[in-house]
């Protein structure tokens, strides 16, 4: 989430810079409106859309384990596995920043709803039609403003006929082009993304662009430009307006007068600017892919047994082959590190010491099960429910287990085990028992090279799901 906040600030900053440099002084008001609202939404939504520009070349990140001089420690036999009740992941602990964000957001939303309620109350008053507008005389503001097809004017106004005509033309443009939709959208976004300074700049620029557009269309409708300019100056001293409305005398007077009298650029220059802006916006949108915002998921794959410790029948070779296939899938998003790359024996302490240096997000220990009853089959997973990582281990184990069900017929569930490795590593850990080598059907899967590749691929798919949810 922190990455999302950072990159939306960066992408919105880049988009706003494009607007200031290429569009703000151009009289392409409709395009400017589209750019401001469109780029704002794209920059906020793009991080959730995964866009893959180049197919990543798989990188092999196998790191061989060097021998340690530490003494051998006793292993935990599988017969001693203790079964525990599955636990739900507890997400109740939140960062203090979350509560600060929540309180401020709640206040802003309350203010927004209060302003909407105020406008609704005003629209219940008596009104008179003037063209398409419902004109309501109000004592709540000394400014002229509008909300959709409602126009609010001071009850005791001293407007001349020329000023009133200019205001009606101006507010009609706001109504016809649904500028109030933009205002409501920007208010909602500022309630949620209040921490992003560019949200407020976007809001200000959009409102200013609304006024520029309304001024342009009002003058083009036949109103004398000099009289219209004088109306802007005469009514520009008022400060308070009804919240969430478009106001005739809102936004800097000087900017509106300058823009009103400014000539349009040549068609070639406007076209060139629009093309440049479109290309730059497309680049910002693509580079905002959330896929690249998150840190890579570092996973240590610990192939069980090895060397003189064969495990159950051919277990050591089966899990080593699957570990090797997983290492071939290693990518920039999911970095696979293996504890052994050949048929070598390592003690549990040596494995723990190696894993502890990798700063892993997850440790997956691969095994193949066995049972005296040849009918016993299926996959199961184990985790330690006594450490600080228990919730993550449980959640990750559940995902990895469910991803094996296309290859194995039985899901034996997620259970607890006080394994030595899990008790001593500094990261979440899951032990996967990939079927029963003593069962005929599971044995066929485990001994088939193509099926081993499929097992590795299904584990990797689970890791991708974990990365997205983490």
Automatic annotation (TrEMBL):
Residues 352-464 form the MurNAc-LAA domain. The chain crosses the membrane at residues 6-24, 31-49, 96-113, 271-290. Keywords: Hydrolase, Membrane, Transmembrane, Transmembrane helix. InterPro entries: MurNAc-LAA_cat, N-acetylmuramoyl_amidase_3, Peptidase_M56. CDD domains: M56_BlaR1_MecR1_like, MurNAc-LAA. SUPFAM superfamilies: Zn-dependent exopeptidases. SMART domains: Ami_3. One of its GO terms (biological process) is peptidoglycan catabolic process. Its EC number is 3.5.1.28. GO terms for molecular function: N-acetylmuramoyl-L-alanine amidase activity. It comes from the Bacteria. It catalyses: Hydrolyzes the link between N-acetylmuramoyl residues and L-amino acid residues in certain cell-wall glycopeptides. This is N-acetylmuramoyl-L-alanine amidase. It comes from Winogradskyella psychrotolerans RS-3. The lineage of its organism: Bacteria, Pseudomonadati, Bacteroidota, Flavobacteriia, Flavobacteriales.
